[in-house]
Design a protein that fits this description.
Chain lengths: ~210, ~140
């Protein structure tokens, strides 16, 4: 179990990160750093690059200095066909997906957001398989799903866009406890606000 | 007001990405209670829909959506037997299940007149979540 991080301050094809730990795995695509930020240069669909943290529970976080059109983070990755995806679309949506055997299935709600360069994305998952996808510290989407619950690789995702840039990646292992408490966001159509741990127990949910 | 819906599982392509979702996920920012879609080892959903509970002041847009099948009774009416509701409503419920792709045998099992809606809701809920129990499944409204 380990925390991981990379500031991307070495110009290279993504290899050894700044934390000195095991190297990035370029699961799909061609990933590099220009000495300040990371990018995917191939421009193909659904490209991911991950670090192994030897823990399936924790917070995967990155700053997006240039959001491009479609980017995100991934966690609990086994291979290019199996992982959890936090998709951040600059047109204004955030979603969580599970990718199982190469097929994506959406988890939780579709959240509309205002995207901006410099946004900080975080995907948290706890030992009970509660996933939360944050933008700048605000919970946007939550879900509970056990897919990939033993997978320990976490990282970056680009989707058909070479203009996306990433900075200050980190994975914080929370398997010892102390993970963030999921906080609900609003519900716009019916005017209800929603606050409280969501799906910590999938059969107990409160709108307040 | 809270309503149960059988939310149709569909495959869509948005922004160049093809994925499975249930119909209610097309409505952004609206909370619901419902768990997640179960998939098989190949990543393909195993069920026709996902049971969800929605709290909203206005259900009109959802009831007009072909991908959302409202359970004909509210939470307070779950003990009502399907045979006790009016025939047009019951037949429409069966017809909509067929539209979702349920075969005749499955529809018969889900809508047997001797069943209560509670049994039907539990049956639908347990398809994606075997631990589902309608008695422990609720939204609090303010």
């Amino acid at each position: 179990m380990a925390n991981r991080s990379d500031n991307f301050n070495v110009s290279q094809s993504l290899g050894t990160p700044s934390d000195g730990g095991s190297a990035w795995s370029q699961t799909s695509g061609t990933w590099s750093s220009d000495g300040t930020q990371a990018k995917e240069g191939g421009g193909g669909a659904q490209r991911v690059c991950v670090l192994d943290a030897a823990s399936a529970v924790g917070d995967t976080q990155v700053t997006v200095p240039n959001r491009g059109l479609d980017n995100g983070i991934c966690w609990r990755l086994a291979d290019d066909s199996n992982y959890i995806l936090g998709a951040y679309n600059a047109a204004g949506t955030m979603k969580i997906f599970k990718k199982v055997a190469g097929s994506f299935t959406q988890l939780g709600i579709t959240a509309t957001i205002t995207a901006a360069n410099g946004d900080v994305l975080k995907g948290s998952v706890d030992a009970s398989n509660n996933h939360t996808f944050y933008q700048n510290g605000m919970s946007r989407v939550t879900a509970t799903d056990a897919a990939g619950s033993t997978n320990t690789k976490h990282g970056l995702r680009a989707n058909g866009d070479t203009t996306v840039r990433f900075d200050d990646f980190s994975f914080t292992d929370t398997s010892g406890g102390g993970g963030a408490t999921p906080i609900r966001r609003y519900s716009s159509l019916n005017g209800l606000s929603a606050v409280g741990p969501f799906f910590a127990d999938p059969l107990a949910f409160a709108i307040a | 007001m809270k309503k149960f819906y059988w939310s149709k599982i569909e495959q869509v392509t948005e922004g160049g990405m093809t994925f499975y979702r249930h119909r209610f996920q097309a409505y952004p920012d609206i909370e619901y209670k419902g768990g997640e879609i179960k998939v098989d080892a190949g990543g393909v959903p195993t069920e026709k829909g996902l049971l969800i509970l929605v709290a909203a002041k206005d259900h009109t847009p959802f009831e007009a959506d072909d991908g959302l099948l409202a359970i004909p009774v509210g939470q307070d009416g779950l003990k009502v037997k399907l045979g006790a509701i009016d025939t047009p409503t019951r037949l429409d419920f069966r017809s909509r299940l067929a539209d979702f792709g349920h075969d005749a045998t499955d529809i018969e099992a889900l809508t047997d007149n001797t069943k209560s809606f509670m049994q039907t809701v539990n049956d639908l809920g347990q398809r994606n979540n075997p631990a589902f129990d309608v008695n422990n499944f609720d939204l609090d409204e303010s």
